[in-house]
Amino acid sequence: MRVAVVGMGALGTVYACLLKERGHEVVGVDRPQVIDAVGKSGLRVTGIWGEHAQALDALVSGVEQLAGRELDVVVVTVKSFDTAAVSQELARVIAPETLVVLAQNGYGNFEAAAASIPPRQLVLARVIFGSETLAAGASKVTVIADDVILGSPANLIPGERLEQLAAECSAAGIPTRVSDQVLRYVWGKIIYNSALNSLGAILEVPYGRLAEGEDSRALMDAIVREIFAVLSAMGEQTLWPDAEAYLEAFYGSMVPSTAQHHASMLQDIQRGRRTEIEALNGAVVRLGRTHGVPTPVNEVVTRLVRAKERLRAEALA
Q: What mean pLDDT do residues 52-68 have?
């Protein structure tokens, strides 16, 4: 495959490095300073999936520089607040048959991308393995809770093409499968991240510690129950019939399998970067207001992350 990876952070580094190692032609896209560092040192992935090092076929510092390249797949790993702008740029340079994989956290990425790119080209990915940035172009895979799930929300992409893409990702070492109910998996990840990522950033502990404390556990319970109330009002379904079933799976299997992982939101705050809180707990609050569902715990958590993000950025300025 001819692949472009837009966003060379922790997740993008894993995809670019392992797909290149598999033998695919891979172009990396990011800011000039990141591209310069990756150009000098190459890509390196460590952790539970072993040691990998690769140099990409090309590195570019802007999506517009993909013009003229025949791409089969674009993997988008940028933060959710950049999805709309990146999608507008991609729409000008990709071919009608290019698939765009949205491998991101949070609510609203598909809607933001679909404003510029036809939905028949958009693939949603539920990614639930954890990776941490060690340096530009260096990523450590720390945990995995389940396969990556690929799907077309309206089932507009031929199943055989999605299966082929999933097979290539799996062969590269990224366990992946296809589902015709990908939105249900994505909502499951949104709930998971809203409970763990935000509190992990606020309290600065790995996920497993959050489940050990009575107070942090009670907060996560409340976050999950509020989200299920919002989903019920929206008429959205998940893989679990209700909040109690989700919480049983959450504490029984999801948290134990990712217990040592530190929240990406914490990493962003520590680096003085903008977080994705508005696509997680913040999105829950907005949806709750729209549908008349109170979400007080999600609102407090959102405000705490915003405050911590601002204070850290000011301290580093």
A: 96
